[in-house]
Amino acid sequence: MKRLHFENAALRHFLAVVEAGTIVGAANRLDVASSAVSRHIASLEQLLQRRLFERHPKGMRVTDVGQILADHARLVEADAARTCADIARASGDRAQTIEIAGAYGFAACQLPRRFARFQARHPHVRFSFTAVEARAVVERVRTAQADIGVTYTHGGERDVQVLFTQPIELVAVMREDHPLGRHERLDLEQLSLFPLALPEPGSTLRKALDIASSLRNLDLVPALSTNHQSSLFHYVAMGSGVTVAARETFTELYGGLPLICRPLDDALLNAGRLQFMVHATRSLSEPVEAFVRYLTLAARLGEAAEAADDD
């Protein structure tokens, strides 16, 4: 089979079109002429003898072949950045940025504290953190846009390796004086009798709640639906509403609000897992490996482990 050689400039221009969705948008990002971007796309399509985009009036939609090339281009960019970081460290500059993608909830609440504590021992490390939906975390790791992903249970995914998994306990959250507070454990039927504040449709937790309620012939219609976790807690703190969250998320976010939580007696809802993941074939840099070890230790041992790492 003929071996292909992709020019880095062509891949960079191609990836810019994938991310911008238009030739003009890619040209603006790269600060080059639109004709230069078009020329690189044409050269790649000629080399591969395949179309990389479907052209539409509103922009460019990447084809299946184009998506494969986009995955390759992101890996090339990530490996180049890793090589530059290795060279910099060998020259005495130890600074390195770790790219992390995390799902809303646990990651957005607890990771920033763990960044700070890790940096106390490793001041040369920088973090770039992006909070996205759980599914998007997996995609960012798979396409090398993130060194580490912190998310919830997902199905098997090519090019992604799960390094650590831990059960997640879901709890119902309500005011301290709420009628449901007298129960030690709660079920979805009890929750359905009160105004519900739930994550927006499409989120991992909302999908689990919708499936569980459907199996029990319940119709969980939220009085409030939002993608902002702390808004759910503030809402239920003001009245008779109830929300659902991971216990660790509630513990981290409720602050001084007059709230309590009760475990949910539902095997399906409590089947979720917290997961730390990396790309299956990319080698990890020393700082990334060290932070993964620290994350795993902190998750296993809890708060007492967060002030230490395993140097």
From TrEMBL:
<dbReference type="InterPro" id="IPR036390">
    <property type="entry name" value="WH_DNA-bd_sf"/>
</dbReference>
<dbReference type="InterPro" id="IPR005119">
    <property type="entry name" value="LysR_subst-bd"/>
</dbReference>
<dbReference type="InterPro" id="IPR050950">
    <property type="entry name" value="HTH-type_LysR_regulators"/>
</dbReference>
<protein>
    <submittedName>
        <fullName>LysR family transcriptional regulator</fullName>
    </submittedName>
</protein>
<feature type="domain" description="HTH lysR-type">
    <location>
        <begin position="6"/>
        <end position="63"/>
    </location>
</feature>
<dbReference type="InterPro" id="IPR036388">
    <property type="entry name" value="WH-like_DNA-bd_sf"/>
</dbReference>
<dbReference type="Pfam" id="PF00126">
    <property type="entry name" value="HTH_1"/>
</dbReference>
<dbReference type="GO" id="GO:0003677">
    <property type="term" value="F:DNA binding"/>
</dbReference>
<dbReference type="Pfam" id="PF03466">
    <property type="entry name" value="LysR_substrate"/>
</dbReference>
<comment type="similarity">
    <text>Belongs to the LysR transcriptional regulatory family.</text>
</comment>
<keyword id="KW-0804">Transcription</keyword>
<dbReference type="GO" id="GO:0005829">
    <property type="term" value="C:cytosol"/>
</dbReference>
<dbReference type="GO" id="GO:0003700">
    <property type="term" value="F:DNA-binding transcription factor activity"/>
</dbReference>
<keyword id="KW-0805">Transcription regulation</keyword>
<keyword id="KW-0238">DNA-binding</keyword>
<dbReference type="InterPro" id="IPR000847">
    <property type="entry name" value="LysR_HTH_N"/>
</dbReference>
